[in-house]
Amino acid sequence: LSQILFKNPNEPPMVFHWFPFIGSTVTYGMDPPRFFKENRDKFGDTFTFILLGKKTTVAVGPAGNDFILNGKLKDVNAEEIYTVLTTPVFGKDVVYDCPNAKLMEQKKFMKIALTTEAFRSYVPIISGEVQSYFKKNADFKPKSGVIDLPKKMAEITIFTASHALQGSAVRSRFDETLAALYHDLDMGFTPINFMLHWAPLPWNRKRDHAQRTVASIYMDIIKDRRANGDAHEEHDMMKHLMNSTYKNGTPVPDHEVAHMMIALLMAGQHSSSSTSSWIMLRLAQNPEIMEELLQEQIRVLGADLPPLQYEDLAKLPLNQAIIKETLRIHAPIHSIMRAVKQPMPVPGTKYVIPPSHVLLAAPGVSASDPQYFPSPDTWDPHRWEVDSPNVPSIVRNGAVEEEEKIDYGYGLVSKGAGSPYLPFGAGRHRCIGEQFANVQLQTIVAETVRAFKFSNVDGSRNLIGTDYASLFSRPLEPAKIRYERRD
Ligand code: HEM
Questions:
Q1: What is the DSSP letter of 466?
Q2: Rounded CA gap, 478 and 146, in Å?
Q3: Which of 184, 251, 397, 477 would staple 210 via disulfide (CB 3.0–4.6 Å)?
Q4: How far is Cα 173 from Cα 261, in angstroms, rounded to an integer?
């Protein structure tokens, strides 16, 4: 009754709930996309629900994405929400443990390191890691077999990313100490840590120990590289960050380089690993697309399938479309949150969001809306073909107008205003890893289709469900598929 009687007409409608603190936490947590869609059908694009005692206002659709992701710094704040979770994992003075202006400078350092020249050197590194994984991993030794995919894709993702971005010295440590330490760090990256980040729980103690140990391993490598004049030929991120200087003239201190390295690997690992698992599960569900991918490579690169080069990736449109289409349906980040700092009128409505609320953007809702993507639940990479009507032109062409792009301090980025497809976010917190993720995923897919045929274990066209229990959505495990080696 109180929810009806004390309703403020200037606030968005509230999702009904029985218990004050819990509110809709459970229904949201079990299946966020379904929760968003059901409530959008009931209330429209803007509504509020209680998430762990906090009034959380969801704004979906292209206008909602724009309202939240392009919110002004005086109105919305990300670090207030994320810092309890990320600072114990990444470490001090980086990302959300510093003022936003400093994050923008750090993002600029990271983004500048990701040049075409760097990508050119990454493709052979990634190819080499994938090939050697398939050769050495015991589960891939037989001519055919059944594997639990997500664990394999997580390993392939971390080996390829660490080698390309962090250099061979860091990569070689992944075979021994670093893999276990990153696993402990990962345990600090779950929803439960939003509530219990401070508690002296065993996994928090492990997380803190792992953070200190990983940071000191990186700092030793940095010292070593500095002492030896950093003769590395590698175009890795560590080298670039070690030589970066803030606008006020301060060189980036070693502990910040180390913490940014952890942040980069953690930020990319979950999203890329989950995406690569979904791609492979979709290929097992659609074996004929896997054949088409191989034929595309044979047609474009030649029947002897020469070693992949960076330039080859742009010549393989179906290989690229696989990633776009998988991110459309399986975007790993389903909820993006901001604290509200000032009353914020929602354009085109009578609503004003007060500072006591949290805002939640869910770009996945518009990416699976039939208004923009016909038959949205069908995974169809061919919809990304140039003449297909199944992708809106704003998504295909991006923001063409110069004023649609904006510089928040880390280079020009598209505002994405009006786009229903934003798997990499928009605005000042937009992903700087998009191109790297694309290079990494496209190379992994191209190498995998050269090596294997995949199918569902039971020969069906079924797809495994989604696990929303971690902060990133990913396939429910075990997610087994059948592989057959190609000769
Ligand atoms: C931010 C998605 C891979 C580094 C973001 C955001 C999204 C996203 C949606 C915006 C978060 C927000 O607004 O709060 C993805 C997806 C990936 C991916 C779908 C892969 C498929 C990567 C990789 C890296 C990376 C590989 C590193 C090399 C970052 C960083 C930010 C970010 C540094 C900025 C956070 C901020 O400014 O608050 N990513 N990402 N991401 N991502 Fe990614």
A1: E
A2: 11
A3: 184
A4: 14
Distance 476 CA to ligand 1 centre (A): 22
Q: Which runs of E-coded beta strand occur in 319-372?
A: 336-340, 344-345, 352-353, 358-361
As a whole number of angstroms, the distance between CA 363 and CA 331 comes to 9
Q: Which of 162-176, 281-295, 343-357 has the lowest mean pLDDT?
A: 162-176
pLDDT tens-digit series, residues 321-351:
999 999 999 999 999 999 999 999 999 999 9
Using CA positions, which residue lies closest to atom 39 of ligand 1? 431
Nearest C-alpha neighbor of 346 from the set 11, 16, 4, 2? 11
- Contact assessment for residue 447 and residue 115, using Cβ atoms and an 8 Å cutoff: no
CA 210 to chain centre: 22
Atom index in ligand 1 nearest the CA of residue 332 equals 19
Q: Are 350 and 363 in contact (CB under 8 A)?
A: no
Q: For residue 146, which of 51, 284, 50 has the smallest C-alpha distance?
A: 284
Tell me which residue has tokens 């909820």. 335
Question: Can you name the residues that pair with 251 across neighbouring β-strands?
Answer: 245
Please choose from 77, 102, 256, 271 the residue to mutate so as to test ligand 1's pocket, defined by most ligand atoms within 8 A of CB.
271
pLDDT tens figures, 381-399: 999 998 888 898 888 766 5
Residue 44, C-beta contacts closer than 8 angstroms, at least 6 positions apart = none
Tokens (6 digits) for 287:
């074996």
| Cut 0.90: pTM above it | yes
What is the complex's ipTM, to 2 decimals? Answer: 0.99
Which residues, other chains included, contact 439 with Cβ-Cβ below 8 Å and sequence gap of 6+? 119, 122, 123, 126, 310, 313
